[in-house]
UniProtKB/TrEMBL annotation:
Domain of life of the native organism: Bacteria
GO biological process: peptide transport
Annotated region described as Disordered, given as residue ranges: 355-407
Pfam hit, one: ABC_tran
InterPro entries noted in UniProt: AAA+_ATPase, ABC_Ni/Peptide_Import, ABC_transporter-like_ATP-bd, ABC_transporter-like_CS, Oligopep_ABC_C, P-loop_NTPase
Protein name listed in UniProt: Peptide/nickel transport system ATP-binding protein
Protein species of origin: Klenkia taihuensis
GO molecular function (one): ATP hydrolysis activity
Bilayer topology term: Peripheral membrane protein
Domain spans labelled ABC transporter: 14-264
GO cellular component, one term: plasma membrane
Entry-linked PROSITE patterns: ABC_TRANSPORTER_1 (PS00211), ABC_TRANSPORTER_2 (PS50893)
Length: 407
């Protein structure tokens, strides 16, 4: 079957149904992905979030057909109505880069260190367009580097990956991903290894890529703050399976799964008018080898009851297009999106402001006072602005500069 022909224009760009991935190991069968379902339509951005080990990256690699031969993959992955699972590497090569492209987490391992970045972009272009001349490919490579914000792009196409900073290397990887105007871009934690300023710049570059190509995007991350300003829908994964799916506002304002509520409560809030404790999720994710029955989040859940250990809950409708896998949805609803109403604060985070011990408070006061006349001692904290209490309101994106990309 030829993948890129006879596609169904009315079908979703990408449709994943009951995707399961298992890896045989000496300890047993690792069920890394368990029944993932999602549909991606034109122009849509889907955020997939969860802790490390929740199956996010394995899901994306299964879609791209990049898992090792030992992996046992079942279910369905359709691109424009045509099945991708079970296709050979030659057939998948027609889809990778042209139909579905991927931005990997580590740009240094994504780029070949012995080839100039311009050559690597040109290679991507000419694989899918054999009629493209060398001169035209070089010009297109320079244009792409300029689109992603690399200064002096016409000269930097001759640079090697080690001559770029981490942020600039990630821009090159994004340029390669958008080179052939793909229908879908899968971004696997594209900002994880970057500092906060460069993260914001890379997110702007991703939005540029979407506007230039018209592509839909699957944005994989462990940071809910990253997807707040860019995603349309959010899929929360835990222990290899989706535990909550909904519109971005539903997930941030009205979470219905304790795990989602805990993820939101464990992030620092810049929009709060008062000092607030973080509410971490205690414990660690379960092993996905021979998992016991019941909810996999039960050992860490503050709302755990005996019934949670009987069977793993299914995703149930809790609103228009909003589903959650929990039998205690009503109790989560009563929390009103406030994680502190369900989770306990961390033991190391109990002391804030005036609650500090006297000796620490005195030491802090001495350090802040400074010498007489020292302007440091006259500092005043800016008055925090009151927000609506949502992480969405706290997410802002600074303007794009190249300062954060200095080597």
């Amino acid at each position: 079957m030829t993948i890129t022909k006879n596609t169904d224009p009315s079908a979703p760009l990408l449709s994943v149904e009951d995707l399961n991935v298992r890896f045989p190991t000496e300890d047993g069968l690792v069920h890394a992905v368990r029944g993932v379902d999602y549909t991606l339509r034109s122009g849509e951005v889907l955020g997939i979030v969860g802790e490390s080990g929740s199956g996010k990256s394995v899901t994306s690699l299964a879609v791209m057909g990049l898992l090792p031969a030992s992996a046992r993959v079942s279910g369905s992955v359709k691109y424009r109505g045509q099945e991708l699972l079970g296709q050979g590497d030659r057939a998948m090569s027609r889809v990778r880069g042209k139909g579905v492209s991927m931005i990997f987490q580590d740009p240094m391992t994504s780029l070949d260190p012995v080839y100039r970045v311009g050559y690597q972009i040109e290679e991507t272009l000419r694989v899918h367009d054999s009629k493209l001349s060398s001169k035209a490919a070089q010009a297109r490579a320079a244009d792409l580097l300029g689109m992603v914000g690399i200064p002096n792009a016409a000269e930097r196409v001759r640079s090697y990956p080690h001559e770029f900073s981490g942020g600039m290397r990630q821009r090159v990887v994004i340029a390669i991903a958008m080179a052939n105007q793909p229908d879908v871009i899968i971004a696997d934690e594209p900002t994880t290894a970057l500092d906060v300023t460069v993260q914001a710049q890379i997110l702007e570059v991703l939005q540029t890529a979407l506007s230039e190509t018209g592509a839909a995007m699957v944005l994989i991350t462990h940071d809910l703050g990253v997807v707040a300003g860019i995603a349309d829908r959010v899929l929360v994964m835990y222990a290899g399976r989706p535990v909550e799916i909904g519109g971005v506002e539903d997930i941030y304002y009205q979470p219905r799964m304790p795990y989602t509520l805990g993820l939101l409560g464990s992030l620092p809030r810049l929009d709060s008018s008062t000092k607030q404790r973080l509410t971490p999720i205690k414990g660690s994710p379960p092993s996905v080898v021979n998992m016991p029955p019941g909810c996999p989040f039960a050992p860490r859940c503050p709302l755990h009851v005996a019934e949670c250990d009987v069977a793993e809950p299914d995703l149930v409708e809790v609103g228009g297009g909003h589903t959650a896998a929990c039998i205690r949805i009503d109790e989560v609803r009563k929390a009103g999106g406030e994680a502190a109403a369900v989770f306990d604060e961390a033991a190391d985070d109990r002391l804030l402001g005036s609650e500090q011990p006297a000796d620490l408070a005195a030491a802090a006061g001495t350090a802040d006072a400074g010498a007489p006349g020292d302007p440091v001692g006259e500092r005043t904290d800016p008055t925090p602005q009151a927000g609506t209490g949502s992480l969405l309101d706290a997410t802002t994106t600074p303007s794009t500069t190249t300062d954060g990309d200095r080597r």
